[in-house]
Amino acid sequence: MDDELKQALSAMESRLSEQIRDTERKLLSVSYGWLRPMELRARLLPLLDERLIALEERMRDIERKLLERGL
Questions:
Q1: C-alpha angle 7/13/5, rounded to 5°?
Q2: Helix or strand or coil: residue 59?
Q3: Angle at the Cα of 30 (from 24 to 33), degrees rounded to 5?
Q4: φ, ψ for residue 70 (rounded to 5)?
Q5: Angle made by CA atoms 61, 64, 65, in degrees to the nearest 5
Q6: pLDDT the model gives residue 61
Q7: pLDDT tens for each residue of 36-45
Q8: What pLDDT sits at residue 41?
């Protein structure tokens, strides 16, 4: 191969490598932007489940007491 062709291919390879890196960075940024709220939700769900169970138990107790009083 002649030197000009080698240089042109090398330059093209460098540009493509940089474009691939830019694309990877953009994809990671977008993924992180989506992942962060999902991670927070995943952490909060068990806490919300516990609170929901506690509320359901309270409601059952209230309903039972109301039934016992005939209301």
A1: 25
A2: helix
A3: 140
A4: 80, 25
A5: 85
A6: 94
A7: 888 888 888 8
A8: 86
